[in-house]
Amino acid sequence: MAVSEALDALLDLLDLEQIELDIFRGRSPDERRQRVFGGQVAGQALVAAGRTVPPDRPVHSLHAYFIRPGDPTVPLVYTVDRTRDGRSFTTRRVSAIQRGRTIFTLSASFHHAEPGPEYADPMPEVPPPERVERNADRWAKALGQGHLRPFDTPFDLRSVGPLSIEAERNPALRTTKNMVWLRVDGELPDDPLLHVCLMTYASDITLLDTVLLGHGLSWLDGRTTGASLDHAMWFHRSFRADRWLLYAQSSPVAYGGRGLARGEVFTAEGQLVVSVMQEGLIRVAPDVHPVLLENRSSKKCCPLKGAALRLPTCPWASCRTLLEGGAQRDSHQL
3-111 maps to which CATH number? Predict the structure, then answer.
């Protein structure tokens, strides 16, 4: 899929259908992924909340919980509770529902900026994005040119440090910090809510990788699986998602099968515009013989040699069947 097509597809996903007062319907991309991407649900839920708030009162924070895995083959229904409409603040609570069950909740607060004290931490010193190689090209080198990304993204991502697969292979590269330049690869309209929702979507792409980097783990190592548990964001200033943003991420702690990651988003000019926190589930299978998947499709997206094999963490729904001593199980089941 071309970049412009990927961007159009994402913008279409965020353009929810209103089916009743404070009720919206969204869908997932036409990809055979086993679970709905968390950033997609968070972005769509914020769109639903924002549609019920005057445009002159922008969102300043959101707090979300991922309750159940989303089914990408089933539409998502978003219900908005108008919790409060005050003189200074507006509060909305959104539930994402599939098959009559809540899979995700989001609370968002909206506030028009007022005069007050101003301070922000400086942006870390990193090379400019023009001097950093695209992640897509680095993944192609690490996995081979025959590797295809599991899903197309309109975001241009450029990691200043190692990718998780590079840190897995080289212990000297392991770190708990993860600096990523990102931007939407295309021009966007002047809609502040759209830019915020796109950043909400993008904030979930690399954040849990930060937990993996310090431990030499990778989503493609055949034994690591994970899922977002909760997600919080604070929007300090306005910004554009189609301009370069530095996503400075770190992981202060991992314990009990959960890892915490935090991020700060800076404009290329050095303004701190967004803060992010997320806890995720990280499960690592024992380091035994590789467990491979039966390939029920013609896709050649797996780095393993042999077209008949797939990794157990492969996101393609057509690659779910695990073969381990004759027993079958779903590697994505939480």
Answer: 3.10.129.10
- Cα 65 to Cα 38, 105, 284, 289: the distances in Å are 10, 5, 22, 35
Q: How is residue 264 written in tokens? A: 């700060």
Residue 148's nearest CA partner among 270, 319, 22, 328 is 319
Confidence band for 140, pLDDT divided at 50, 70 and 90: confident
Architecture of domain 129-287: Roll (3.10)
Task: Check residue 147 and give its pLDDT.
Answer: 55
Tally of CA atoms within 13 A in the half-sphere of 2 that contains its CB: 4
Task: Tell me which residue has tokens 């997320």.
Answer: 278
Which one of the listed residues 228, 249, 250, 251 is annotated catalytic? 228
User: Does 204 participate in catalysis according to the annotation?
Assistant: yes
Contact 39, 187 (CB under 8 A): no
Q: Tell me 185's DSSP state.
A: S
pTM, entire model: 0.84
The CA distance from 265 to 276, in Å, is: 8
**Which residue has 């090209």 as its token pair?**
137
Domain range summary for the chain, segments of one domain joined by +: 3-111, 129-287, 291-334
* CA distances in angstroms from 153 to 9, 136, 187, 243, 307, listed in the order given: 9, 10, 15, 16, 25
Q: Known catalytic residue: 228?
A: yes
- Residue written as token pair 């008949």: 308
* pLDDT over 70 at 267, yes or no: yes
Considering only residues 1 and 13, tell me which one the structure prediction assigns the higher pLDDT: 13
- pLDDT of 323: 32
Q: Is 298 a catalytic residue?
A: no
Distance CA 147, CA 34 (A): 19
C-alpha dihedral, 243 to 107 to 116 to 191, nearest 10°: 30
Question: Does position 305 have pLDDT exceeding 50, yes or no?
Answer: no
Check 156, 204, 209, 221 and give the catalytic one: 204
